[in-house]
Design brief:
Layout (H helix, E strand, L loop, with lengths): L10 H9 L3 H17 L4 E5 L2 E5 L3 E7 L4 E4 L4 H12 L3 E3 L2 E4 L7 H17 L1
Antiparallel strand pairs: 1-2, 2-3, 3-4, 4-6, 5-6
């Protein structure tokens, strides 16, 4: 059996992932999805490794639901480190390359947009 292509665009897989979540998790991740699409309208999306992944020429960012939080996976070690203080002020904690956000608390849109733009710059620079 062949592996699905990482460049495939399968938004229905993300829709299915979100539909299975409790309302507060689904709403938070749907808002995050919309922010990603606004910053990177040409990205493709799919579910891989059991989480939604957004891709430009390579994997861009991802998101996930855990038992008590949602994850925004920056796929960058530098971005969370650079934004640590700002994120802490918003009640977001960091683990590795991931921002952990309590669902239903409202997303810090400006900070997420800042992280996404920084990730775009990383991808553009190689």
């Amino acid at each position: 059996m062949s592996r699905p292509k990482p460049s495939r665009h399968a938004p229905e897989e993300v829709d299915t992932y979100l539909a299975a979540l409790p309302d507060d998790f689904r709403a938070t991740l749907q808002q995050l999805r919309e922010i990603v699409r606004q910053i990177a309208p040409d990205c493709t999306e799919r579910v891989n490794y059991r989480i939604p992944i957004f891709r430009l020429k390579r994997d861009f960012v991802a998101m996930s639901a855990a038992s008590k939080h949602v994850g925004f996976h920056t796929m960058s070690k530098a971005i969370p480190a650079a934004m640590k203080d700002e994120l802490g002020e918003e009640g977001i904690w960091i683990s590795g390359t991931t921002f952990h956000i309590k669902p239903g608390t409202g997303l810090p849109v400006a900070l997420l947009e800042k992280a996404l733009r920084a990730r775009l710059r990383e991808l553009e620079s190689g």
